[in-house]
Amino acid sequence: MTIAESPLLAGDVYSADCPSREIFGHVTSKWGVLVLAALAERGLRWGELRRRIGGISEKMLAQTLRTLEQDGFVHREAHATIPPRVDYRLTPLGAELAERLLPVVEWIAGNIGRVSEARHQVR
After folding, report:
1. Which pLDDT belongs to residue 73?
2. DSSP calls for 46-85
3. Are 20 and 3 contacting, i.e. CB atoms less than 8 angstroms apart?
4. What is the four-CA torsion angle of 44, 23, 66, 94, rounded to 10 degrees?
5. Side-chain half-sphere CA neighbours of 98 within 13 A
6. Could you tell me which residues come within 8 angstroms of residue 117 by beta carbon, excluding any fewer than 6 positions away?
7. How far apart are CA 123 and CA 110, in angstroms?
8. Contact of 9 with 3, CB cutoff 8 Å
9. Residues 6-18, buried b or exposed e (16+ Cβ, 10 A)?
10. Residue 31, Cβ neighbours under 10 Å: how many?
11. Running along the chain, 123 residues long, what does each successive block of 10 average in pLDDT?
12. How far apart are CA 77 and CA 90, in angstroms?
C-alpha cells in the first residue's frame, strides 16, 4: 500500500524511500514556498502571481503551479474568456500547509538583518 492509497498512513521525510520526501521537496523549494505564501493572501491570476513573486520565470511558475496542483495544494480554474483567464487558489489542504509556512516566511523577513550580520561575521 502506498501513502497515496492510505491518507491515514504517516510519511517519513527522513527516509529516502518515502514518497513524502518528494512532496517535502516540492513544498520547501524556493518557488514552492513563495507561491503558497502568495496564494495564502488570496486567490490570484497568473499575471498577479508573476508580479507578486519577483524573479520567477514563466517556465518556473508554470512548473511550480502544476506540481502544487498535482500534490493537491493549489486549485486551478480556467475561464473560457477572451483573453483566457486562469485563477489559482489554495485548496483546504494547501491553506492548512500555508498556515504553517507563513510563520517561517515572516520570521525570515523579520530577521534578515540578524542573518545578514551573522553571514558577515563568518566571512
Report:
1. 98
2. HHHHHHHSTT--HHHHHHHHHHHHHTTSEEEEEE--SS-E
3. yes
4. -30
5. 22
6. none
7. 22
8. yes
9. eeeeeeeeeeeee
10. 19
11. 56 88 92 97 96 97 98 96 93 98 96 92 82
12. 11
| Phi, psi angles (nearest 5°) of residue 70 | -60, -35
pLDDT of residue 109: 95
CA nearest neighbour of 89 among 70, 58, 65, 113: 65
Chain-centre distance for alpha carbon 53: 11
String of DSSP letters for 82-116: SS-EEEEEE-HHHHHHHHHHHHHHHHHHHTHHHHH
C-alpha cell of residue 32: 514552492
Question: b/e string for 71-94 if b means 16 or more Cβ within 10 A?
Answer: bebbbeeeeeeeeeeeebebbeeb
Domains of the chain, start order: 20-122 (1.10.10.10)
Give me 96's grid cell. Answer: 492548512
Give the pLDDT of residue 44: 98
